[in-house]
Amino acid sequence: MWILTAILGLIFIVSARYVFVVSDRTGLTAEALANSLLCQFPSLDIRSETMVFIDNLDKVGRVEEKINGVYAQTGMKPLVFMTVVDDRIRDRIMACQAVFYDFFGTFIEPLEKELSMESSHTVGSSHGVRDPIKYTSRISAVHYSLMTDDGLETDHYNRADIIVIGVSRCGKTPTCLYLSLHYGVYAANYPLTTQELDSKRLPPVLIRHRAKLFGLTIDPFRLLQIRQERYQGDSYSSSSLCQREVAQAESIYRVARIPYINTTRMSIEEIGAKLMQRSGLTRSLL
């Protein structure tokens, strides 16, 4: 029996595909690239590891050891997603037994040719402060979203670019924080309470900001799951209440002609992109 277990374990290890994300800075760009591509293969069993701040030759050794170690163990080349500016470091890593997806090597050289200029080859530039004014504005937007979270400080709604409304736990807070952090959008959010939903009308505080409103809705059974994770056994997380609140919120949206989307099967990134598109907010590189 133990032999069979060992064989099955070995098969499982070999069938898994190992992925390394290697960066000379935070690794966010390389991770985003890897996630965007690998999510197209949902049945693939992935074992991933991210190695960041590989910014000098002294740190390359552990990267080489990890990558070559996986190849020696499995006989299968790991996938390496890499954002490394220094040519010496990149060449060392690319000598390893792996399949490489090099962000800078793939895109920087063609850009240099097209623009007829050399890139700065500056470590960490992809997540640095390219424009201090825009960066400061983005941080201010994050503070604004935190300050106005969950219906707080409604007297500051005149500064809002968008006001996200919906029932509790439908994704308002993470959506607003995403919009502020990534796009510098001043995004407030307001929870529709049971009393407000029962009235079947927009709360008075929102009426004069109707043009900025955007609604979120969600499948009632998904909402029930989310609420039960935190408030199991409470009436707040009952099936009947979830169904009633979602139906009432959608009715208010339709009557008040407020645009809204269903967030049930959407990531925060997708929700943010939809809100930006539907509301006409401008996206720009920050």
Quickly list its features.
286 residues; alpha/beta; Rossmann fold; 2 domains; 4-stranded parallel beta sheet; 8 strands; 49% helix; disordered N terminus
Account of the 3D structure:
The chain has 286 residues and is an alpha/beta fold. The protein folds into 2 domains: 2-127, Rossmann fold, CATH 3.40.50; 132-279, Rossmann fold. The relative contact order is 0.09. The chain is 49% helix and 14% strand.
The portion of residues forming beta strands comes to 5-15%
Shape label: elongated
**Radius of gyration based on Cα positions:** 24 Å
| Low-pLDDT ranges | 1-14
Structural class by helix and strand composition: alpha/beta
Find the count of extended strands (DSSP E, 2+ residues).
Answer: 8
Helix content: 40-55%
Q: Tell me which CATH architecture of the largest domain applies here.
A: 3-Layer(aba) Sandwich
How far do the termini sit from each other?
58 Å
CATH class of the largest domain: Alpha Beta
How many domains make up the 3D coordinates?
2
How many individual helices?
Answer: 12
Q: Note the main sheet.
A: 4 strands, parallel
Mean pLDDT: 88
Strand order of the largest sheet: 2-1-3-4
**Assembly status:** single chain
In CATH, the topology of the largest domain is named Rossmann fold
Helix/strand order: HEHEHEHEHHEHEHHEHHEH
